[in-house]
Specification:
By secondary structure, the protein is of the alpha/beta class. 41% of the residues lie in helices and 17% in strands.
Length: 256
């Protein structure tokens, strides 16, 4: 089975060399990875990693935690890096996070919209982070209805039903990871059960959100098979029924 990790942070993994991480993932069938940028300091790093490995791609964007540091210079760097290489496959991780609020909400919304405009200009897919900000996420994205021509993914989806319904109406992808294997989020699992397989992609968000049965350890792209197995169980389907659909979704998301 061929699998893809649509969202990981290779520059945040410290216990193994990146080459080994990529090789270990490939050994279990994870043959493509997207290492995702989150702040002004790792835009170049993510691009450099993607250029070193044939099967690694990257994104460019500033996370809502660091939206306070966004400026025209950073915007130009994102644009320049994106135009410089086919290995940049998305704008992200961008969005809103009202759980931590490391950046004032108004600034988050302004920077979210600015980067969505950049995605429109560059004709790139978008990787969205939304935590405890469903209403405003919908409000901002609604302003771009019809403008975003490339696919959108709600990364690490764990939101409420209003954002879930909006995502399906807009034909967004849901990025699912180890969070759905945790003990408590039964509401999330219920939404996943009702989500068409054609709307799902898988991710690790490594080094975060390690899935059961590896909980308590650092997360790695090689753990995608555990997430896939849980999804198949949740959907009451065989692995060979689920894997090809999710893999094709992943390719379609990033135009690969």
């Amino acid at each position: 089975m061929r699998m893809m990790d649509t969202h990981c942070h290779l520059d945040r993994l410290r216990k193994k060399e990146i080459g080994q991480i990529v090789g270990d993932a490939l050994a279990v069938g994870v043959d493509k990875l997207v290492t995702v940028a989150v702040d002004p300091d790792n835009l170049d790093t993510c691009l450099e990693i993607s250029q070193k490995f044939e099967n690694v791609y990257c994104s460019q964007g500033v996370h809502p935690h660091d939206a306070k540091d966004y400026n025209l210079g950073i915007q130009e760097k994102i644009k320049r890096n994106t135009l410089s290489s086919f290995k940049v496959v998305a704008i992200g991780e961008i969005g809103l996070d009202y759980f931590y609020e490391h950046t004032p909400r108004e600034v988050q919304r302004e920077v979210f919209a600015a980067q969505l405009n950049l995605a429109v200009e560059l004709d790139k897919p978008v990787i969205i982070h939304s935590r405890d900000a469903e209403e405003d996420t919908i409000a901002v994205l609604s302003q771009f209805r019809g403008s975003l021509k490339k696919p959108v993914v709600l990364h690490s989806f764990s939101s409420n039903e209003s954002l879930w319904e909006f995502a399906l109406e807009e034909n967004f992808y849901l990025g699912l990871n180890g969070m759905m294997t945790f003990l408590k989020p039964e509401n999330l699992r219920n939404m996943i059960r009702k989500t068409p397989l054609e709307s799902i992609v898988l991710e690790t968000d490594a080094p975060f959100l390690t899935p059961v049965p590896k909980r308590g350890k650092e997360n790695w792209p090689e753990y995608i098979p555990h997430i896939l197995a849980f999804l198949a169980q949740l959907k009451e389907k065989e692995l060979h029924e689920v894997a090809p659909i999710v893999y094709q979704n992943s390719l379609a998301l990033f135009g690969l």
